[in-house]
Design a protein that fits this description.
The protein is mainly alpha-helical. The protein has 12 helices and 5 strands. The protein has a domain of 164 residues: Intergrase catalytic core (hpI Integrase, Chain A), CATH 1.10.443.10.
């Protein structure tokens, strides 16, 4: 950093402010791009049938660890960065609780560990007890000898997710990104309907459909405001089509009645 200070030590205060302003623009343009929703009314979450199809295409026991990580995402609503950080000390199987560090809110939250997750997670921790201990207690530990890390990475799960989606023929996409860099001649990225975050969409949608309580859903989603929760509650294609049918078929029936009355 000394060379950096030497460059700017002879600049006036006004010029330093101009330089800072210019650097901020470059930083925000490169690293803080505003995410614009591009999918409108497209359902970004899994349906029940799609989720079961996704789970059925894992090769066991080779991919058991990744499968369990995705099960935790789908049935606990975890983000991909949260699931890789789970440690054995965070889980209390007796009291059916799991402690999660919520990335966005920077808080520690306690979730109820229901049997759909508790049983396979308990079996995994018992079977891999020695490996988990050697890897600083990380439940989803890394076996890669070339990487100096104890847990698997979020990108590892994202890559595995895309691989399974291709196997299961769940790799559809709805448009291409507009964040290409002309300096590197990169092709536009395909924006897939299903991503690892779709597992969280599935969880939040299912909680709301079961409880019909937006406040409970917000709490279980670990959101700080209800607006964020609302974005995650997906409506199926069939429900949207049914809504259109009910609206316009009802209108058509009313018009027919009016015409008959006028006659």
């Amino acid at each position: 950093m000394e060379w950096f200070e030497e460059i700017f030590q002879f600049l006036s205060e006004r010029k330093l402010k101009l330089v800072r302003k210019g650097l901020n623009k470059v930083y925000h343009r490169k690293y803080k791009k505003t995410k614009k929703p591009k999918y409108g009314n497209i359902n970004k979450g899994f349906t029940e049938q799609e989720l079961q199809r996704f789970f059925n295409y894992f090769m066991l026991p080779k991919e058991e660890k990744q499968l369990l990580a995705f099960v935790c995402q789908a049935y606990l609503g975890l983000r991909v960065g949260e699931v890789v950080k789970i440690k054995r000390e965070d889980i209390n199987f007796e009291e059916k609780q799991i402690r999660i560090y919520t990335e966005k809110a920077k808080t520690n939250d306690i979730l109820y560990l229901h049997n759909q997750v508790r049983i396979p997670l308990f079996n995994w921790c018992e079977k891999q007890k020695e490996s988990i201990e050697k890897k600083q207690g990380f439940v989803f530990f890394s076996r890669n000898p070339t990487l100096h890390r104890d847990s698997i990475s979020p990108n590892h799960l994202r890559n595995k997710f895309r691989e399974i989606c291709r196997r299961a023929h769940l790799d559809s996409w709805y448009c291409e990104s507009d964040d290409t860099n002309p300096d590197y001649n990169k092709k536009p990225r395909k924006l897939h309907r299903l991503t690892t975050h779709s597992l969280r969409h599935y969880y939040i949608t299912r909680v709301y459909q079961s409880t019909l309580d937006p406040i409970v859903t917000k709490k279980l989603a670990r959101h700080q405001d209800l607006g964020s929760t609302q974005i995650y509650i997906n409506t199926s294609k069939e429900a949207l089509e049914e809504g259109m049918k009910k609206t316009f078929e009802k209108e058509k029936q009313n018009n027919v009645r009016l015409n008959n009355d006028s006659c």
